[in-house]
Structures are given as structure tokens and as C-alpha cells.
Amino acid sequence: MQHASSLSPGLAAIILVSGIALLTSTYFPGGMVLHALLWGFICGQILGVPMGCQAGLNFSEKFLLSLGVGLMGLGLSVSQLTSLGLTSVFLLITSMATAFLSAYLLSRFFNLSRGFIILSAIGNAICGASAIAAAAPVVKARQEDTGLAIAIVNGLGSIWMFLMPLLFLSTSLFTDEGSAQIIGSTLQAVGHVSGAGFAMSEQVGNLAVTLKLGRVALLGPVLLVLAFVSGNQTKLSFPLPWFIILFFALAILRGLWILPEELLNSSAFIAKLLLAMGMAAVGWKIQWANIKDQSKHALWFNLLISSSQILILVGLVFLVRNIPG
Fold it and tell me: What SS3 class is residue 165?
């Protein structure tokens, strides 16, 4: 374990950046995690990576980020899945499967790294920045891949957040339930789903967010699969990274006991703050020269993934609505 004195400069810088991200995310869309990544990236381009800050940045990127992922388990419950109808669960699973299958097929036509492909798939499939931040250490993704994936996935989610209500409100093809199922099963972040859903109506917003939380609840199992498929196993007898173990332990704890609402709200904020601190460090260490050549291909790659999800969900919801009986 490193001495506190060696960590202090980098941690102080990350705390400052995270505080700025918390402030700006209350006035502008994108969420604290994305804002922290962007502010960290800006600092990295202006200041570089000072020698005295390296230890604190590494600690934030590795330990604090992983701890934030583990604490996310306390914010999930089985009831988020059991409250959904069978049709909604089917659409949810189909959307997630489409994201992973599309990423796999499209990867043959795009010269992108394995880490970026996996992070793009999980970001579109589950919950944007949080899912990417959680999966990055599992698949040992490069900092450049993590930062680029978060920026593009969340950027596309913001665009769809504005376009979907305009599309659905201008047509009578879908009921409120159908619109909510499409929004909740496809848009990348909880904020995107909330924005698009409540822009239509309170009923659409509530159902869409419930469905979205069902997707988020599947983050743990997906990380578990990724840990084994990616071969990210320790030399010890226990095969899982510690933060995934913590994730499941806290999820089980919440399922077994009724915990105070104040505790759940506080843990959710702390988890998000730790994720933001970790992503600020990731952003700080990224250099634009290392990602600019990939950015155009990366954007098209993610656009095709999210478009595939939306088109398939639109078709399925339309079919379900028009099935006789």
C-alpha cells in the first residue's frame, strides 16, 4: 500500500475535478461520471500528467473506480426485475442481445480494439457510462478505449433522448406502453430514459425508468460472464475480481433485509462519486493524439449498434401490438 503522502497530490486533483463535475452536471446534461471524464481529459491536455500526481491518479483509476462498482450492488434489487411483465422482460433481453450481437458482427468491418468493442456493447446494452466504467477493469481495457466509449455512447444517448419523443409524439403507431418499452429497453443511461420518457408523459416516464432499472439489475450477471470469458481471473483459488464479489454480496444483503432509504440513497451517491473520481483519473491520463484516429470509426460503430437496437425493438413492439388476440 502506498503512503498517503504519495497519493495526496493526485487525489486532491481528482477530488477537485469531481467537485467541478458534480457542479456542472446539475446544470448541463450528461451525468456526473461523463462530466468527470471530460474535465479530467481537459486537465490532462492542458497539464499533462505531473510526476507527483501519478500515484493518486493510479489509485483513483484502479481502487476507487472498482470500489464504486462494488457499491452499486446495494442499489439493485430483485423486485426491479420481478415487477416487469413477461413482454417487457422479453424486449429487454432482446435489446441487450442485439447490442452484443451487433457489436460482434460489426467488429469484423471496423478496425477497433477488442476492449473498445466490448465496452461499446455493454454501454449500449445496459447503462452507458456506469456499465462501461464497471466493465473496463474486468476486460482490462485501455484508458483511451474507456474514455472514448463513454463519450460516444453517452453522446448518442443524448441525441436519441431528444429524437425519440419527437418520433413517438408525431405518430400513433405506439401506445404509451409501447413507447416506454422501446425507450426503456434501448436508451443508454437512466438520465436518457428519464428525459425521453417524461418528455412524453408521466406514465411513459415511470414505465420506461422501471424497465431501465431492470436492465441495470443485470449488470452484475453480465460482469460475471465477462470476468470468465475475458480470462480476468486471479492466480488464487477464487476466480473473481474482488469488486464483483462485493457487488453481489451487497445485492444479496439488500434482498435479505429491508435497509433504510437514507442508507440506500447515500450509498448510491457515494458509488456514483467514486465512479466519477475513477473516470476523472482515466480522462486525465488520456491523450488526444492516441484516440483521434479512431474517433470517426468508433462513432459509426456505436451508431450502428444503437440503431440496430432501436429498429429491432420498434419492429417487435409493433408486431406485439398487432398480434390478434
Answer: helix
Q: How far is CA 132 from the centre of its chain?
A: 5
CB 234 within 8 A of CB 57: no
Q: Which residue, 49, 71, 54, is CA-closest to 2?
A: 54
Q: Which residues contact 309 (CB under 8 A, 6 or more apart)?
A: 95, 98, 99, 102, 124, 185, 186
What is the 8-class DSSP label of residue 105? Answer: H
User: Residues near 292 by Cβ (< 8 Å), separated by ≥ 6?
Assistant: none
Cell 432501436, residue located? 310
Which residue, 316, 246, 240, is CA-closest to 66?
246
The burial of 109, by beta-carbon neighbours within 10 Å (0-12 exposed, 13-18 middle, 19 or more buried), is given as exposed
Contact 304, 111 (CB under 8 A): no
Amino acid 212 reads K
DSSP for 279-320 reads HHHHHHT--GGGTHHHHHHHHHHHHHHHHHHHHHHHHHHHHH
Q: Using an 8 Å Cβ cutoff, are 130 and 277 in contact?
A: no
Smallest Cα–Cα separation from 256: which of 52, 79, 105? 79
Q: Which grid coordinates belong to 199?
A: 418528455
Question: pLDDT band at 237, cuts 50/70/90?
Answer: very low
* Distance from C-alpha of 222 to C-alpha of 252, rounded to nearest angstrom: 16
Q: Is the confidence at residue 236, as pLDDT, over 50? A: no
Count CB-CB contacts under 10 A for residue 2.
Answer: 10
* pLDDT per position as a tens digit, 2-44: 566 788 888 999 999 999 999 998 888 767 887 888 899 899 8
Distance CA 143, CA 18 (A): 18
Closest to 55 (Cα-Cα) out of 3, 4, 7: 7
How far, in Å, CA of 275 to CA of 280, rounded? 8
Q: What is the pLDDT of residues 57-79, one digit of tens each?
A: 989 887 888 888 788 778 766 66
Quote the CA–CA distance of 28 and 114 in Å, as a whole number: 32
